[in-house]
């Protein structure tokens, strides 16, 4: 039986550099939230409750990437206090859209945006949580998928290792009977190199995949890119398509850089 | 062959209406979202009348025809596999009783009557393969068997072939040789537009008795034979199967597997689109309150690394090994395992491969070139 009452495991939800969208996915689990709070004590979740209890925590969900020295220190503390640490979302797992800075000069950004750039303390790069501390599981997506989140939480609470598909999105299209936008419409799609998990949201709406869930296990971007070019993408467009929420995921980063040199 | 009859367009409408009256849900081709695919239909008006498809490696389009053909197109994106071997289904429910005891309840669908309108020869050949593996084997799948039981098949012999079709090479078409209740050949010749009907079962013969039909003329029979001959002559592709199994076995270490893997995305579209591929994985999900659990089965693919993941890692660790598994299983080891080829030449894997990898081209390239010994 799942633990109940006073023995409930303690859950903490942390935010680093991020938009809060993944935390909102947790709050969006309206129907399941009550069942969840029966199972866990929400000890620390500032986005949802002003009650903030001290650690240690049985399970920490971490949203966001590391973009400041303060964050780099704080994540060490979170790790120390957490039995299990699961990252949620593209920011925490790959550096997020803010990792676009990794390809540019942060100092010039600061000068352009802020009246007093000296007051901004920011690292030159945005990096995933796993680059700083050991991570027990990375839940992909921008934002994460609600049912995957519930599954991962459930597995963690039962002490089981979550297993989520790491294959490409195409499997989800075919299972859902979604017509391939690339074959039937000539629309460029990152699905063949993107990890499944979103339920083929974009192809369902006749759009190509944008790669929100990051590279799939065998992402053969070098084979996909020439095909995207045949469908009309020029090198700058290729750089942009690989350079979104998972810009700093190694396979996507290498592919965008290859086309930058073109 | 003495059972050949002729029905006109009105008779065809009656055929569908009669099936409905007998409690069948009609599953037939429809023009939808830029494809011609199978779905629920209510009558002839729902068919893609006057439409065709255009298929080539990695490309599919629908286009208007210059006639009112009802079945003037070829392989649909999804095969009938999706109707029997569902892409996702619950197979077992586990419930916790009041005393904490567990009850295991297998989920088996009720037999439902469905009539498939327009199944092609390749489709029926694939169905026979799936029947052998999933229904008539030592360990049948009760869910597949239950769905299969309710199926009535109105086949259509192809009157044209698609750009990726090669059923003639696989002995699987374009004329259906069995496995149907009724089979139609659509006759379209100037003002002539009707069907020649062949009965394939007692149920088919009984149904035909209940709808208006007549004796076909000699010209009708000639036109029907011509239509099928036209399909044979327009076959988009060809595969030399002579000695293919031995040749492929001999080329297991061929560098060509690496070469195709450079182009292959390992996306698994080919396996999902293939009407004979059946590989699946199972997953257990426990509800949040821990009271109930469910076991689900879903399509998987030999292109997925986690599909063959064992304690030590995936059995086929690289894309060359996975592509070799796919092609060799379809065209060679299937013979040893199930007594037939695993490929019926429908061309779906070619059309629906996003980068247009062509199994016929790869197989002949690999068998022809001299393999380098393994490094
Ligand atoms: S639409 Fe995109 S993700 Fe879906 S099958 Fe086609 S290429 Fe794959
Ligand atoms: S291997 Fe390709 S051509 Fe052969 S049956 Fe499967 S999808 Fe059709
Ligand atoms: S493979 Fe043969 S039977 Fe199948 S659609 Fe093409 S011509 Fe018809
Ligand atoms: S052959 Fe084509 S469809 Fe099959 S896995 Fe490779 S790229 Fe995908």
Shape designation of chain A: globular
Main sheet summary of chain B? 7 strands, mixed
CATH architecture of the largest domain in chain A: 3-Layer(aba) Sandwich
Strand content of chain B: 15-25%
Question: Helix content range of the residues of chain B, please?
Answer: 25-40%
The class by helix and strand makeup of chain A works out as alpha/beta
Count of distinct strands of chain B? 15
Between the first and last Cα atoms of chain A, what is the distance in angstroms? 59 Å
Q: Which structural category do the helix and sheet elements of chain B fall into?
A: alpha+beta
Tally of individual domains of chain A: 2
Q: Which spans of chain A of ≥5 residues are poorly predicted at pLDDT below 50?
A: 1-5
Residue stretches of chain B low in confidence (pLDDT < 50, at least 5 long) are none
Rg of chain B, Cα atoms, Å: 22 Å
Strand content of chain A: 5-15%
CATH class of the largest domain in chain A: Alpha Beta
Mean pLDDT across residues of chain A? 94
Shape of chain B: globular
Strand arrangement within the widest β-sheet of chain A reads: 2-1-3-4-5
Sequence of secondary-structure elements of chain A:
EHHEEHEHHEHHHHHHH
For the termini of chain B, the CA-CA separation is 57 Å
- Mean pLDDT across all residues of chain B, rounded? 94
């Amino acid at each position: 039986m799942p633990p109940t009452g006073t023995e409930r495991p303690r859950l903490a939800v942390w935010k680093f550099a991020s938009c809060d969208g993944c935390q909102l996915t947790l709050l969006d689990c309206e129907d399941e939230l009550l069942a969840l709070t029966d199972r866990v004590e929400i000890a620390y979740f500032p986005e949802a409750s002003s009650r903030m209890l001290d650690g240690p925590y049985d399970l920490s969900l971490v949203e966001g990437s590391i973009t400041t020295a303060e964050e780099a220190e704080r994540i060490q503390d979170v790790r120390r206090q957490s039995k299990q640490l699961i990252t949620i979302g593209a920011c925490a797992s790959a550096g997020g859209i803010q990792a676009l800075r990794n390809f540019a000069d942060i100092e010039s950004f600061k000068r352009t945006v802020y009246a007093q750039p000296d007051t901004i303390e920011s690292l030159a790069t945005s990096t995933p949580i796993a680059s700083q501390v050991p991570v027990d599981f990375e839940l992909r997506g921008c934002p994460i998928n609600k049912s995957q989140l519930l599954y991962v939480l459930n597995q963690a609470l039962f002490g089981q290792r979550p297993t989520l598909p790491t294959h490409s999105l195409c499997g989800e299209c075919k299972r859902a009977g979604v017509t391939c936008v690339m074959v039937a419409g000539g629309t460029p799609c990152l699905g063949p190199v993107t990890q499944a998990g979103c339920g083929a949201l974009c192809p369902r709406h006749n759009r190509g995949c944008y790669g929100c869930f990051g590279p799939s296990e065998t992402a053969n971007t070098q084979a996909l890119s020439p095909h995207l070019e045949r469908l009309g993408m020029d090198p700058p467009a290729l750089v942009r398509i690989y350079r979104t929420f998972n810009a700093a995921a190694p396979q996507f980063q290498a592919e965008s850089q290859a086309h930058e040199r073109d | 062959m003495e059972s050949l009859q002729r029905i006109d367009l009105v008779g065809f409408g009656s055929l569908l209406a009669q099936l409905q009256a007998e409690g069948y849900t009609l599953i037939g081709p429809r023009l939808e979202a830029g494809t011609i695919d199978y779905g629920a239909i209510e009558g002839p008006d729902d068919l893609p009348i006057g439409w065709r498809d255009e298929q080539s490696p990695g490309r599919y389009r629908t286009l208007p025809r210059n006639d009112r053909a009802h079945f003037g197109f070829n392989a649909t994106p999804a095969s009938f596999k999706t109707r029997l071997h569902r892409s996702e289904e619950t197979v077992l429910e586990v419930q916790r009783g009041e005393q904490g005891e567990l009850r295991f309840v297998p989920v088996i669908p009720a037999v439902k009557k469905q009539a498939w309108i327009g199944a092609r020869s390749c489709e029926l050949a694939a169905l026979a393969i799936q029947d052998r593996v999933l229904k008539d084997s030592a360990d049948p799948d009760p869910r597949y068997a239950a769905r299969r039981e309710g199926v009535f098949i109105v086949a259509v012999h192809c009157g044209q072939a698609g750009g990726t079709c090669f059923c003639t090479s696989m002995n699987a078409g374009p004329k259906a040789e069995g496995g149907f209740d009724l089979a139609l050949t659509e006759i379209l010749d100037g003002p002539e537009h009707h069907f020649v009907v062949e009965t394939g079962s007692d149920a088919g013969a009984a149904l035909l008795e209940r709808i208006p039909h007549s004796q076909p003329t000699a010209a009708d029979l000639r036109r029907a034979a011509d239509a099928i001959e036209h399909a044979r002559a327009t076959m988009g592709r060809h595969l030399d199967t002579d000695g293919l199994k031995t040749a492929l076995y001999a080329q297991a270490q061929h560098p060509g597997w690496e070469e195709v893997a450079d182009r292959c995305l390992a996306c698994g579209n080919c396996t999902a689109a293939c009407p004979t591929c059946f590989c699946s994985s199972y997953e257990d999900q426990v509800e949040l309150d821990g009271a109930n659990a469910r076991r689900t089965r879903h399509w998987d693919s030999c292109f997925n690394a986690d599909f063959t993941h064992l304690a030590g890692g995936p059995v086929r660790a690289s894309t060359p090994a996975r592509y070799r598994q796919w092609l060799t299983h379809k065209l060679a080891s299937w013979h040893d395992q199930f007594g037939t080829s695993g490929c019926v030449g429908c061309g779906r894997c070619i059309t629906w491969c996003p980068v247009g990898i062509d199994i016929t081209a790869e197989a002949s390239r690999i068998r022809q070139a001299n393999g380098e010994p393994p490094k």
